[in-house]
Amino acid sequence: MQIDKTPFKDLVVLTPKIFADNRGYFFESHNNKTLDLAGLRYDWVQDNQSHSTYGVIRGLHFQKNPAAQTKLVRVLQGEILDVVVDLRRAEPTFGQVFSILLSAENKQQLLVPKGFAHGFSVLSETADVLYKCDALYNKESESGICYNDAELAIDWKVPLDQVIVSEKDLVLSSFNDLDSNF
To answer: Suppose 120 and one of 80, 110, 167, 176 were both cysteines; which one would form an S-S bond, judging by CB atoms 3.0 to 4.6 Å apart?
Structure first.
């Protein structure tokens, strides 16, 4: 597995080694030892999976400390634009956005450490997304930033008239009004 750093501390892209032949393909999607050797040790305690149609935007979500979560995100079917925002005030990348195309075809994964808001938009007809978490869901600590925040100006790669967002996500706060403890 190839582990590529991003300009954001601890935010990495994982690209598996694919073994393909006339039967199909095989790859390791997760290996604790490989991550351990790279200094990326996590105790995954919960897997989440979603199925969405084209134009759906989920996010930007996070859990506040002490229930903050690291996530390992991958796409089982389809293609998404995976987006994170650095909420760690002490980092030089605070308030900056990182995005990457994740797909069933490229099989890449994004390891999103604690202190980031996370979301994605669906760019294919449908997409199945799976992500591991190192902390359980905690309703009292959940928070987020509205997907169309003017300060962040994220290009979700979906025409505005085709965006589908939950009622819950429509009322998330703006980046400037964010109440986070990172």
So the answer is: 80
